[in-house]
Amino acid sequence: MPSEKRERQREGRLARQEELRIAQQKAKRRRQLVITIVLVVALGGVFFLFTRGGGGKSVTTATTTTTVAGPPKAPPVAAGAKLTSWECPKADGSSPRTDQFPSTSPPVCIDPAKTYTAHLTTSEGNVDITLDTKKSPNTANNYVVLSRFHYFDGTTIDRIDTDLDILQSGSPKTQDITDPGPGYNIKDEGSGFKYTPGDVVMARAQGPDSASAQYFFVVGAKASSLDQQGNYVTFGHVTAGLDVLQKIEGFFEACPAGSHTCLGGAPSHIVTISKVTITEA
User: Fold this and answer.
1) CA of 149: how far to CAs of 5, 15, 128, 211, 221, in Å?
2) pLDDT in tens, 63-102
3) Do the beta carbons of residue 121 and residue 273 sit within 8 Å?
4) Within its chain, how far is the Cα of 3 from the centroid?
5) Boundary residue ending a domain (43, 67, 91)
6) Residue spans of alpha helices (H) in the chain
7) For residue 138, what are the domain limits?
């Protein structure tokens, strides 16, 4: 049998070994804790750099990509009065703003022997249009009637097509190409039109006699590609302010992919036609 002294020595060795084991475990846990803290701090620093520092460009780009919805669009013009039966608007412009009309085309409210000029006040400058009462009297008459009922006041340039060099407007209810119009359509006046810079032309659907209020300005030579169709009725010509319209074309911003309300593009900031005034001579 081992002596009592040897037994005490053996128990002392075991105790020291246990203390060493516990100390080693504590040291290991401390190292693991330090490593964990270092990793957390390092990852936090990387995250900070990417969200606040140089990597912020990536975040900003991603945010821009997901939030950009294409060109800005103005809210619809406030609803106007409803005309239940046709009457000509007052020539002095005192008729109330009206945006709902009978389902038939307007009566003749102009004198084709006179010269009618539309003065457009826009947020980018003024534009004058001499209306063609000889070749397209009914279409010119329609524009005069709607203008004197203030239908176009507050509308925007809601479409730019740089492939065709055109700017489109005439959509107070939606401020885009989906506008339902004034409640009627007008008949086409001829065909075989050729489109040159300065022309003011009715927009229309694919079918005949489908124009109503939307119209476009020709601001460059590319519109001649529409000559092969020739069925968009030209009803006026810009006599002052073509440079204003060409400047607006320079604001082009592409429509977002898959948009059903934006065709081609529109100005990168809202361009408003605040007022259309008709004079006659």
Assistant:
1) 119, 104, 18, 18, 33
2) 444 445 799 999 999 999 999 999 999 999 999 999 999 9
3) yes
4) 99
5) 67
6) 4-52, 56-67, 137-148, 242-249
7) 81-280
